[in-house]
Amino acid sequence: METLKVDVWRGGADGRFQRFEVPRRESQTVLDVVTHIQRFLDPSLAYRFACRVGMCGSCAMTVNGAPRWTCRTHVDKVARDGELELAPLANLPVVRDLVADMREFFDKWARARGQFRPTRSRADAFVRVDPRSAARREADAAIECIGCGVCYAACDVVKWNPRYLGPAALNRAWTLQADVRDGAHAERARVVDGDAGCHSCHTLMSCTELCPKRLSPTRSIAGLKRMSLRALLMGEEAA
Ligand code: SF4
Ligand code: SF4
Ligand code: FES
Fold this sequence. Notes:
The chain is α+β, with helices and mostly antiparallel strands. The chain is built from 10 helices and 7 strands. A hairpin with a 2-residue loop joins strand 3 and strand 4. Helix 3 runs parallel beside helix 7. The longest helix has 17 residues. The structure holds iron/sulfur cluster (2 copies) and FE2/S2 (inorganic) cluster (FES). One iron/sulfur cluster binds next to helix 9 and helix 10.
């Protein structure tokens, strides 16, 4: 039977790779490979997944040097000469084995005011948002983020400047700045305009190249930069 040689990160930040041999199967995903190792070769292997269908964003890892969602990544696409190297996502602390600590990633969403701030009460009527409006189309283009952290792990600016809010949090901020119902535009604009915000992005595009949902955080960040410039020209204090 054909086998795949798989080097898997074991332990914490000071860990090392351990080699496993896994049977090769048709249509096998990287997550199938990890699951085989955990079920049949070493039950102590730590990794994370939930939906297996590209919805929850929990299965991302570094696969042969690049961050990827593993439940939708086929081995055929990424194996090199029958070998795979698997490690936790970069730019985040390692918990153990293939599990990265995502707290910092989600804390940055909160710092970028990534929550919808309602302006109405339950007693009010629904706000009608025209699906053809420019703002709604901007939000639609960026809204399908599953919070997988692939873009964050791919971003060199996050590596150089750990305070940088990063592509996912800024992408989320952009969707809310384009939401006419949200009541935190000015506050969010101040945060995303600051040192750790949109102006730190060097437009290197790694986030956009690797986002499994084919979103473009780079484009969203450019939108935030335009918004900030407009506010400056209008003499407004950061929007
Ligand atoms: S475009 Fe900006 S946010 Fe995206 S990877 Fe490059 S520097 Fe990071
Ligand atoms: S923008 Fe794309 S890569 Fe980044 S967290 Fe969202 S879905 Fe994942
Ligand atoms: S397991 Fe949910 S996105 Fe991969």
